[in-house]
Give the backbone structure.
Amino acid sequence: FVTSHSSHTSEFICAICTQLVEYQKPLHTPCGHVFCFGCLDEWLTKQKRCPNCNHAIDISSCTEMKIGCALGWRVLGRVQVRCPLLAQNCVWEGDYSEVDNHLISSQTHVNSHVTPTTEANALKEQGNAKFEQGMFQEAIKLYTKAISLAPSNATFYCNRSAAFFMLESYRLSIDDATKAISLNRLFAKAYVRLSKALCEEGRFQEAVDVMHKALEIEGLEGVPVAQQELERVETLVGLISNAQASSVSDSHEDAHRLFTAAMQLCPPYTNAWLLLELAREQVLVGQCDQALRITRDLIRKDGMNPSPYVVRANALFLSGDFDQAIKHGKEVLRLDPDHADGSRMLRYLRNSIASIQEAEKNMGNREFEQAVVGLTQVIEDTKPPVHSPLAAQLFSKRAECHLRLHNYNESLSDTAKALYAQEDCLSAWITRAGALIALERFDEARTDMEKLMEVTHHNPQVVQMHERADFEQRKRKRPDYYQMLGIPRVASEREIKVAYKQKALELHPDRHPDKAGDELKQMEIAFKQLGEALEILTDDMSRDLYDKGYDAEAIRERVKAAQMAANKQGGHHRGW
């Protein structure tokens, strides 16, 4: 129906359907080609390459033509076309951008020589084309005009019901499907449309009753489709019933699994009632991030429904975002001052948050015993799901308090619970390393920190704890020079040298000709360490480093570094 010269339209031909692209929502690819939205969307589900040039693309990288290539879109709108209902003797010709307005206008085709039914069917076909392209609003307009021409045609209502369904206007979809059934009680597809829309409204048992009623009708057209829908909704009702029973019995993992399975039976996975129930169970099993995503989408669709705010407030609390939790709790009462759970939930949130903040205040004041008591009470009162961020936060804080109180085993027990809740809880890993070091389990602490350094890209806290574990391990393994010489730690340099001479005479290998093999080797090692003791304890810097915990190797490294720094500084002074 295009009348413009092909040289004006060649750039606007969709390579997939080989037709002029739809005007309302054509897509422009990064490689500069234009396609119908529906055609390209379906194409990219099979392969992520441009049908024209094989360039790698995906649907997110494409833009609507009116945005990505505004000038081209305006040129497309000026392409000259005839009315798609040319076969019905419509002689209209004009801009491509005006075709839809022409088709749905109440002033067009009024004096047509064709029958209203023929014209209505032609409009339905145009509506079906829009539906296939995902242009549901435009499809509804065309179906509506078709209905105005043939108001007793059940198919038109059924098709418009499907378009309303895709726009998530489920009540309008129910109305049209019900009207289609009233016009043709043998029309199985209308019952199926009604059943699907009822399910999206959360009226699952009504959907079952509708399909049972349909299959009782003798002469029903499309029995297999109706039977398939009945099986679907009965399975759905069974899953929901079992999920609710599991939730009541606190088997939330089972409830979450069953609600997830139910969602798979409700494409396009937008069932608000099921999504909210699924989000509730996600909160109760600690999957707060997923619950927050679902409730965010539900609130965007219907910001006046308080129920998603209730679930979201709980998810925010269990995520440790206390301010936002309180904000959403208040919003519940703003939307519905008499909400059954609103006041109780807000009071619970405020009390729990106050208790947590009091425990944190005690930690800041170094009142760790009181902090342990407070955190224990909060854990008992809130019973956070084992995989929730709040569980990780509370157990990690209590573990830190136990560490400060030298309750190392209790600290390790709480860090294990925190890491089970949230494997990437950094504070729990740091506290665990501190407890392991205190228990002289240095290898475990070093192994944990080495793995964590790779994941955290050498986080300063992790690196510091790794160095501490290494330091403490070397400190425990180094010889005790004071004990070896038999002197106090405050001995003077003269006392050290006198003690060294006495011990050297005792341990010198020449004084023990009767020793051999391993026994002699051990004596040689002891004599060598005695020399290290004299060297380190008679040098002020070396002795200070030794008293701080450094071993002989580390002391030599630091003394050497200090000497190099001093030499470098002296060289600069000479340059002046």
Observations:
- The longest strand covers residues 80-82.
